[in-house]
Write a structure and sequence with these properties.
The protein is 44% helix and 16% strand. It has helices at 3-14, 49-59, 74-86, 100-108, 120-134, 145-160, 176-185, 201-208, 221-224, 231-240, 249-263, 269-280, and strands at residues 23-26, 35-39, 67-70, 90-95, 112-116, 137-138, 167-171, 190-196, 243-247, 291-295. The strands form two sheets. A six-stranded mixed beta sheet has the order 1-2-10-7-8-9, with helices on both faces. A four-stranded parallel beta sheet has the order 5-4-3-6, sandwiched between helices.
Length: 308
């Protein structure tokens, strides 16, 4: 695929449907130098996922049977939102571990929500069965060209906003967001993949020479808990020699708290994972290296303002 052309087309396609999210220069966090941050958690439904969902729906013909998606929560909310905005019914499968905040969000968006036991892989199995039975269009959370191109609009937008960093840190689950960033940047900047030590599908794949199944757990598992990295992401990461950094649950929670205390940004654990690599020293910039962090999700559980 010509990724540059695909992402440019996606950017024009989704422009009227997604938010242009803010970029800030942040100081503090126990770091000597300022860090540029893109606050993608203020995107529709609280994560970057709306970009891929809209790009998919706007570039393909949706069948009479509607849409189906499996999700740890954020992707499902994005598909439900995009489907409702564009007039398509959607069935969303999520694992129980998605948590009440994300489950409640999908319910409020009007999708046909199905909660299944287990992890994301179990939800994906159920979604594939429904697709085979009904002919509904499956929107993969991360390993599809239209999804990755849509997520790539985030990095294209950031560069349009004047991204000055040498290095960008991005949290990784299944690889849609970092895959889109790699596809757009094509080696022009250094990209560091940050994963929880207990949910590290890309790290394991890079070590093994190909995607492998991993066990998933930890505070960010409902967003970064893919059991196997996407083939698209792996291919791009291997080709560009992406560096992988692992962080503990404690480091993620500390970064999550720091974002609230120092910037009044309320994010979910996945949204704080990239910053955790800097704060914990899992990634140590060289002197003078300009670093940026992509804050990717804000669907914190429990919802602090929920009436429930």
């Amino acid at each position: 695929m010509d990724w540059k052309a695909g992402i440019e087309a996606a950017w024009h396609r989704v422009g009227g449907h997604v938010r242009r999210t803010p970029v800030v220069e942040a100081r503090g966090f126990g770091l000597d130098d300022p860090v540029e941050m893109k606050l993608e958690q203020v995107q529709h439904t609280g994560s970057f996922k709306a970009r891929g969902a809209f790009n998919t729906l706007l570039s393909m013909e949706v069948p009479e049977a509607g849409l189906v998606a499996a999700s740890g929560g954020n992707h499902g909310a994005a598909v439900a939102y995009a489907g409702a905005r564009l007039g398509h019914r959607a069935r969303i499968y999520v694992p129980e571990m998605a948590g009440p905040a994300k489950i409640g969000l999908i319910e409020r968006l009007g999708a046909d929500l199905q909660v299944v036991p287990g992890a994301y892989a179990n939800a994906l199995e159920a979604a594939r069965a429904y697709e085979a039975e009904t002919g509904a269009m499956q929107i993969h959370a991360y390993d599809a060209e239209a999804t990755v191109a849509g997520q790539g609009t985030c990095m294209a937008e950031w560069e349009d906003q004047g991204l000055a960093a040498d290095t960008v840190l991005i949290a990784v689950g299944g690889g849609g967001l970092i895959g889109g960033a790699l596809a757009w940047l094509a080696g022009r900047r250094k990209v560091v993949a940050v994963e929880p030590a207990t949910s590290c599908a890309l790290h394991a794949a890079l070590a093994a020479g190909g995607p492998v199944d991993v066990e998933v757990s930890g505070v960010a598992a409902n967003a970064l808990g893919a059991r196997r990295i996407g083939e698209i992401c792996f291919g791009l990461a291997k080709a560009q020699g992406v560096e992988s950094a692992l962080v503990s649950d404690e480091a993620i929670t500390e970064a999550q708290l720091a974002l609230w205390r120092e910037m009044r940004q309320l994010v979910e654990p996945a949204g704080a994972t990239a910053l955790a690599a800097l704060m914990s020293g899992a990634y140590a910039p060289e002197p003078g290296e300009r670093v940026a962090v992509l804050v990717c999700g804000g669907n914190i559980a429990p919802d602090p303002l929920s009436a429930d």
